[in-house]
Specification:
- There is one protein chain.
- This protein has about 350 residues and is an alpha+beta fold.
- About 30% of the residues lie in helices and about 25% in strands.
- The protein has two domains: about 190 residues, 2-Layer Sandwich (Fructose-1,6-Bisphosphatase, Chain A, domain 1); about 120 residues, D-Maltodextrin-Binding Protein, domain 2 (3-Layer(aba) Sandwich), CATH 3.40.190.
- The strands form four sheets. An eight-stranded mixed β-sheet has the order 4-3-5-6-7-8-9-10, with helices on both faces. A five-stranded mixed β-sheet has the order 12-11-13-17-15, with helices on both faces. The chain has a two-stranded antiparallel sheet with strand order 1-2.
- Strand 3 and strand 4 form a beta hairpin.
- The longest helix has 21 residues.
- The protein is globular and about 55 Å long.
- It catalyses: beta-D-fructose 1,6-bisphosphate + H2O = beta-D-fructose 6-phosphate + phosphate.
- It is an enzyme of class 3 (hydrolase).
Length: about 350
């Protein structure tokens, strides 16, 4: 039999592009607590919407969809044009798939009841986090949480389906639109990251089984708010400076979180005198990232309690957030507890 002597040379020219997100989801479907196929399809729907938002983001400067939209959302924040575009794209993807019965979005005042009584999942989403940075070409992102509904299939949705603690998530993830676009997600069996290859139109597995370093030397906090911090946070940041840690703060939650997840570090958005309940939203920001960081071996806290244990009481409830490498989060908590007796009260 004639052999082909140049097989090795040809293989070296045609490098492997890796496993696609779609194939990975199919391979891992057996790991899902409810492996019936709907969750797999839901993740694909989110990935498709992310591809469209990535396209819109990349051409924002050429299509006049950058800048402010001229309205404010329920948070009292000025909506950017891309906020509206991203919200529409994800709403369409989630509503047409058939797997979702209700959606909670940062851009919507109330729960979006899709009237899909056969839908098994509730999705909480921040369609475009950090969108005010789009005009200056800084990384932005999408954050999502997926919950299994509590009420029986076929019945109307209730608050019981919506107001679930983060520990009840069946999946969570984020998309980072930056120098490369990445989708990172977990279904409770570790964390995987996928990088988008635009020429092929596919997400490929690039970061399998992501593990957050146990500690790090990066701290991320808006130091312009120092006068608003309680003494425990001030003491912790001072300690970071004494230890010559690096201060890295982009001002885009997904981007700051992603860097610290891979390199080791802590992200802090603490309570302040002006915002004693914190600023970040529990349902569609803190819970998702807390689920991811715990699956990667890190930790997420509000300074006193585990984020995933907090029982939500309001749709757009806010929370302080300390998240990242486990050792660093625990150190920050200790500083806050050590000095708590020296603080009179936040609400003065």
């Amino acid at each position: 039999m004639k052999t082909f002597p140049y097989q090795a040379d040809q293989n070296s020219l045609a490098y492997s592009v890796g496993i696609t997100l779609d194939r990975y989801i199919k391979l891992k479907q057996g790991d899902f607590p409810f492996a019936s196929g709907e969750l797999s399809q839901l993740l694909r729907d989110i990935a498709l919407a992310a591809k469209i938002v990535n396209r819109e983001t990349n051409r924002a400067g050429l299509s006049n969809i950058g800048g402010a939209f001229g309205q404010t959302n329920v948070q009292g924040e000025e909506q950017q044009k891309l906020d509206v575009v991203a919200n529409i794209r994800f709403m369409r993807a989630l509503s047409k798939g058939g797997e979702v019965c209700a959606i909670v979005s940062e851009e919507e005042d109330a729960v979006i009841d899709l009237q899909n009584k056969s839908g098994k999942y509730v999705v909480a989403i921040d369609p475009l986090d950090g969108s005010s940075n789009i005009d200056v070409n800084i990384s932005i992102g999408t954050i999502f949480s997926i919950y299994r509904r509590k009420t029986p299939i076929g019945s109307p949705i209730t608050s019981e389906d919506i107001m679930q603690p983060g520990s009840q998530q069946v999946a969570a993830g984020y998309v980072l639109y930056g120098s490369s676009t990445m989708l990172v997600y977990t279904t409770g069996c570790g964390v995987s990251g996928f990088t988008y290859e635009a020429s092929l139109g596919e997400f490929f597995l690039s970061h399998p089984d992501i593990k957050a370093p146990e500690t790090g030397k990066i701290y991320s906090i808006n130091e312009g708010m120092e006068l608003e911090w309680q003494s425990g946070i001030k003491a912790y940041v001072r300690d970071c400076k004494v230890k010559k840690y690096q201060s890295r703060y982009i001002g885009s939650l997904v981007a700051d979180f992603h860097r610290n997840l891979l390199k080791g570090g802590i992200y802090l958005y603490p309570a302040t005198f002006s915002n004693p309940n914190g600023k970040l939203r529990l349902l569609y920001e803190a819970n998702a990232l807390a689920f991811i960081i715990e699956q990667a071996g890190g930790k997420a806290s509000d300074g006193e309690s585990r984020i995933l244990d907090i029982q939500p009481k309001a749709l757009h409830q806010r929370t302080p957030l300390l998240i990242g490498s486990k050792v660093m989060v625990e150190a920050a908590e200790q500083f806050m507890q050590k000095t708590e007796s020296e603080i009179h009260t936040f609400s003065r």
